[in-house]
Write a structure and sequence with these properties.
The protein is mostly helical. It has one domain. Helix content is 56%, strand content 10%. It is built from four helices and two strands, in the order H-H-E-E-H-H. It has a two-stranded antiparallel sheet with strand order 1-2. Helix 2 (19-27) crosses helix 4 (58-86). The longest helix has 29 residues, at 58-86. The chain is globular, with a radius of gyration of 14 Å.
Length: 87
């Protein structure tokens, strides 16, 4: 698990519609729940506070949450694949 310098050395092109979700995504990267098999998902308890800090309106929160779930799921797949590959 964990990010390497190589992971962080990337330019991102983000569609404006996706920007709220991406901002929240980067803000919650310290909120992973970790079990015996590694990360199991994000701690959703922090989301109301983070969404509020970023000024995400209530009517947008479902859309932002759905995008976060996609990012979370894909990240877990990548981390699982790395664990399996690296043993």
């Amino acid at each position: 698990m964990g990010l390497t310098d190589e992971d962080l050395d990337v330019d991102l092109d983000v569609l404006e519609d996706n920007l709220p979700a991406v901002r929240v995504w980067f803000a919650v990267q310290t909120q992973w729940r970790i079990g015996l098999d590694g990360p199991s998902g994000l701690d959703y308890a922090v989301l109301p506070a983070v969404l509020g800090l970023f000024g995400i309106r209530r009517k947008q929160r479902g859309e932002v949450f759905a995008a976060l779930r996609i990012l979370e799921g894909e990240t877990l797949v990548i981390w699982r694949d790395r664990r399996e590959r690296d043993g």
